[in-house]
Design brief:
The structure holds 2 protein chains of 2 kinds. By secondary structure, chain A is an alpha+beta fold. Chain A has a domain at 19-75. In chain A, 28% of the residues lie in helices and 35% in strands. Chain A has helices at 2-11, 43-58, and strands at 23-29, 32-38, 62-68, 71-74, 84-88, 91-93. In chain A, strand 3 and strand 4 form a beta hairpin. Chain A is elongated, with a radius of gyration of 20 Å. Chain A starts with a helix and ends with a strand. Helices cover 47% and strands 15% of the residues of chain B. In chain B, helix 2 crosses helix 4 and helix 4 (180-193) packs across helix 5. In chain B, the strands form 3 sheets. In chain B, strands 4-5-6-7-8 form a 5-stranded antiparallel beta sheet. Chain B is α+β, with helices and mostly antiparallel strands. The radius of gyration of chain B is 27 Å and the shape is flat. Among the domains of chain B are: 3-58 and 213-250, no CATH class; 122-207, no CATH class. Classes of the chains: A alpha+beta, B alpha+beta. Chains A and B meet through strand 1, strand 3, strand 4 and strand 6 of A and helix 2, helix 3, strand 7, helix 4 and helix 5 of B.
Chain lengths: 94, 265
């Protein structure tokens, strides 16, 4: 059996390791929006995303997380599990 | 009164509901001044004539006038754009053209990206609505009030009632010069997650209905037609039989009234 596996395994495709699912931070700007990605499993990337979150919310940006089809939720604290966070510029009267 | 005249009047009464007081051929009526509620013969030396119109005719004329005004606006915009391009080419030559072209492409890309993002964040119902009519409804998180967000960057949020009539406008959005899709998305999220705060910063504005706009615009040239002052005309929505119209126009006989005798004419 072991020999059989050895022979057939030679011809099998080795599955590529699954790419880490990156979470996105969308920042509204004059180009439409800019996208920043981070890996929630990576500590460095996570710290960078948190720093960006704090910096933008400190500037008055409104952070909203997409929670479903057409549903969004405003978040005040950095949330690593948020797959897509949108940063909206501060609201002003027109 | 000759017999043919009586027959003509009877036929006019049957078809129009009133009698045309003119000796001019019917084909020339459309060349005369027209207002929303009546037609006035303004030919110098011609017989003054006032005709009331039925509500359907009034509406048809209003829509015609609106289409004319829209065509004028489109033509104006095209003229302005052309003038600007001519001016830029004349003063700045090809340099500005190239820069402007790059800038325009960037703007188009930004608009497209913003709209794509908006489409991703809209609910299926909102997306369907947006694809059909370039606007969508949002429910406010605090009051439960319905809002209409239309395509645009300013003055594009309205409180609407259950009949979808715009009641009042709210002007607010993200700071900076952003694309329309981004602005609409920000407005949607703001109303759905922080309605009170959004409305606190918003400036409100009165909503002008299309019919109001038309009426207001009409007055400017209704009072003067080809340099001649014209008497404002009352719009008659419904003509009641048996009621004498303005300016001594003849009463429309009720259906059960006896046929008019020749002596009355």
């Amino acid at each position: 059996m072991a020999l059989f596996d050895l022979i057939t395994g030679f011809f099998r495709k080795i599955p590529a390791p699954a790419a880490p699912k990156l979470h996105r931070q969308l920042i509204m700007d004059h180009t439409g929006h800019s996208v920043e990605q981070f890996d929630p499993a990576d500590v460095v990337s996570l710290a960078e995303a948190e720093r960006r979150f704090k910096e933008l919310t400190g500037l008055g940006f409104i952070a909203a997380e997409r929670v479903g089809a057409g549903q969004s939720k405003r978040i005040g604290e950095f949330k690593p599990s948020a797959e897509e966070t949108l940063f909206i510029r501060p609201l002003v009267g027109g | 009164m000759p017999k043919w005249r009586r027959r003509l009047k009877a036929r006019q009464r049957r078809t129009h509901g009133f009698v045309l007081r003119t000796s001019l051929p019917a084909a020339s009526w459309r060349h005369f001044a027209s207002t929303d509620g009546a037609e006035i013969n303004l030919l110098p030396g011609g017989m003054n004539y006032v005709r009331e119109m039925m509500a359907t005719e009034v509406r048809a004329r209003q829509s015609e006038r609106l289409a004319e005004m829209e065509a004028c606006l489109v033509a104006d915009r095209a003229r302005i754009r052309l003038n600007r391009e001519i001016r830029d080419t004349f003063f700045y030559g090809n340099r500005l053209d190239r820069e402007a072209q790059v800038d325009r492409e960037a703007q188009v890309n930004a608009q497209q990206r913003a709209l794509d993002l908006l489409r991703k964040w809209l609910s299926p119902a909102q997306l369907k609505e947006f694809d059909e009519s370039r606007c969508f409804h949002v429910i406010g998180c605090d009051s439960g009030q319905r809002y209409l967000v239309t395509l645009g960057v300013v003055q594009n949020v309205f409180t609407v009632n259950e009949r979808d009539e715009k009641l009042i406008g709210h002007c607010f959005g993200p700071s900076g010069h952003l694309a329309a899709g981004d602005v609409m998305l920000a407005q949607k999220i703001a109303l759905e997650t922080m309605e009170t705060e959004a409305l606190r910063v918003a400036n409100t504005f009165m909503v002008t209905r299309p019919e109001d706009y038309l009426t207001l615009q009409d007055w400017s040239y209704r009072l003067h037609f080809r340099g001649m002052p014209v008497m404002p005309v009352r719009v008659v929505e419904r003509i009641e039989p048996g009621v004498t119209g303005p300016w001594g126009t003849p009463a429309i006989p009720a259906l059960d009234a006896p046929a008019p005798s020749s002596s009355a004419d």
